[in-house]
Amino acid sequence: MKRGIQILTELIRNLKWKAVKTFVSHPLFAFPTVWATIESIQLSEMNFGDNPGGNGLANAYRHAVWNVLTALYCSKISSVEKSLKWTEKITNLHEELFPNDEYNRLMDLHNNKVGRNLFLKAHKSGKKSKQELLEMLIKKSKSAVGLRSETEFQDYRDRLVYYPAAE
Known about the structure:
Helix content: 55-70%
Distance between the termini: 27 Å
Number of strands: 2
Strand order of the largest sheet: 1-2
Radius of gyration: 15 Å
Number of helices: 7
Order of helices and strands: HHHHHHHEE
Largest sheet: 2 strands, parallel
């Protein structure tokens, strides 16, 4: 709980006006998104024991689980389609507001999409529980690929990618 409060405090401190406007435009999605954000950081730290803010496997997992959980929680109050659109919008906005170098930005966007695709695939196959989704994502993280060039991303559309030097 203490870690969750620390994460929430950091999120509020770093909130940008464009993000506030986006949340105001979809107020019902605000709480589920913030909760998914906090939980994704905690799950990443719990499962990988390192800083999920780096460029390694913990970061790849954090981005994917953030998208999975945001889509899952928002789909409880809206349609899956609207939830996925929102998830893409808010996670892409994060990349815009907190810019990385081009390689890391593309890597984060790739892992975000992997998370959304996993959620959609699981939803279509009837696997809708949070536990099932998290298990699928842990399994996916075991086949993650360390890449050094963004031109390689297209070869691994369905796999998490990370920068191996960051490990």
